[in-house]
């Protein structure tokens, strides 16, 4: 009896410690996101980019025998050029497809090529196949969606007009933040060890050493997480884009980007979009499109089963209830950004605790 009570007490104590730890993490995350992240964001972004550039510059220095400063400058310029080129071509194509899609929505409302007409026709054909009662109150999908878009367009135009002045006022601050980020990136890439030593000397006692040690552990875990899931997201996007092009789906780049972003969101995946889309295509008699979409989904799942263990490595997942709670709390406190950041924070806490356990 005494042993049973002791086990129950230990279990409750562990539960209390877990709840207290969760509350502390939530409080620290709230303070960090609300008060510390905005002023420190340029430096954090520079630190993240420098963490990726520095290993490559050290490797080039060792292999080519060139000084650290020229290599660092070349690496910064090369990466920025590649990023700008990628964003320019991808962004211009994406903006073009978005523009054509919106123009197609607003014009030629009665045309069969109009997406709203296709959506309305899909609803009517589904209504014929499914046991939905007919009558005056039956679903008029075209009218509903058209009214929604008209109301959304009017509210969007008014909100854009209201926020245009505030956006213009924030432009100088944004340009200044970008300039600070580039300067910080240059200094961190050139002399990372010197910057770390300066921070260590600036803080009292062994606080600097603890901060540098914590940063190295945190950056290692975060870099591993972001690198792994960026590669997975890129592979998923490539599979989606290629598959939609083969199926001759209109606005393939736009749909591939949207589905890849949905896949990146917690608790969701490509199946959230591809499975209903494929089933709807089958119900409407478009068997080639439905089969193709389900094949794309199957290929993505199979490829991910092979590459995820190799890319992620020893990634330790969290229990679904903890992940769900983290996502919900993050969404309620910080919106979409908190929803996306919650799994990353949970992973970092898990990774740091695993490091402590291995050391002890």
What can you tell me about this protein's structure?
By secondary structure, the protein is mostly helical. The chain has a domain at 40-190. It has helices at residues 2-64, 68-106, 115-129, 141-190, 192-202, 207-246, 252-264, 271-283, 287-312, 320-334, 336-359. Mean pLDDT is 71; it is low at 135-139.
Beta-strand fraction estimate: under 5%
Low-pLDDT runs of 5+ residues are: 135-139
Query: What is the CA-based Rg, rounded?
Result: 26 Å
Q: Structural class, judged by helices and strands? A: mainly alpha
Q: Number of DSSP strands? A: 0
The shape is: globular
- Number of DSSP helices? 11
**Mean of pLDDT:** 71
Helix content: over 70%
Termini separation (Å)? 32 Å
Provide the succession of SSEs: HHHHHHHHHHH
Largest sheet: none
């Amino acid at each position: 009896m005494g042993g049973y009570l002791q086990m129950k007490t230990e279990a409750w104590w562990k539960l209390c410690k877990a709840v207290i730890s969760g509350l502390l993490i939530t409080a620290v995350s709230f303070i960090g996101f609300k008060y510390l992240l905005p002023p420190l964001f340029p430096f954090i972004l520079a630190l993240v980019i420098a963490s990726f550039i520095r290993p490559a510059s050290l490797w080039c220095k060792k292999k080519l025998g060139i000084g650290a400063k020229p290599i660092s400058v070349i690496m910064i310029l090369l990466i920025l050029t590649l990023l700008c080129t990628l964003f320019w071509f991808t962004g211009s194509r994406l903006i073009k497809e978005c523009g054509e899609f919106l123009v197609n929505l607003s014009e030629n409302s009665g045309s069969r090529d109009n997406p709203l007409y296709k959506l309305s026709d899909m609803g009517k054909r589904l209504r014929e196949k499914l046991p939905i009662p007919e009558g005056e109150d039956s679903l008029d999908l075209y009218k509903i969606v058209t009214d929604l878009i008209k109301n959304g367009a009017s509210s969007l135009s008014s909100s854009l007009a209201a926020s245009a002045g505030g956006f213009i006022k924030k432009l100088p601050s944004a340009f200044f933040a970008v300039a600070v980020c580039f300067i910080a990136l240059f200094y961190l890439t050139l002399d990372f060890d010197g910057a770390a030593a300066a921070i260590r000397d600036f803080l009292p006692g062994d606080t600097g050493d603890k901060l540098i040690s914590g940063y190295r552990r945190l950056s290692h875990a975060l870099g591993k997480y972001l690198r792994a899931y960026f590669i997975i997201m890129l592979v998923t996007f490539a599979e989606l884009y290629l598959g939609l092009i083969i199926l001759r789906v209109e606005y393939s780049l736009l749909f591939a980007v949207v589905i890849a972003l949905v896949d990146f969101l917690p608790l969701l995946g490509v199946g959230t979009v591809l499975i209903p889309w494929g089933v709807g295509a089958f119900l409407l008699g478009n068997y080639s499109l439905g089969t193709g979409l389900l094949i794309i989904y199957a290929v993505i799942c199979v490829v991910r089963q092979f590459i995820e263990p190799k890319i992620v490595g020893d990634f330790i997942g969290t229990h679904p209830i903890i992940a769900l709670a983290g996502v919900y709390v993050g969404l309620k406190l910080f919106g979409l950004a908190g929803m996306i950041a919650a799994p990353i924070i949970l992973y970092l806490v898990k990774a740091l605790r695993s490091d402590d356990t291995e050391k002890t």
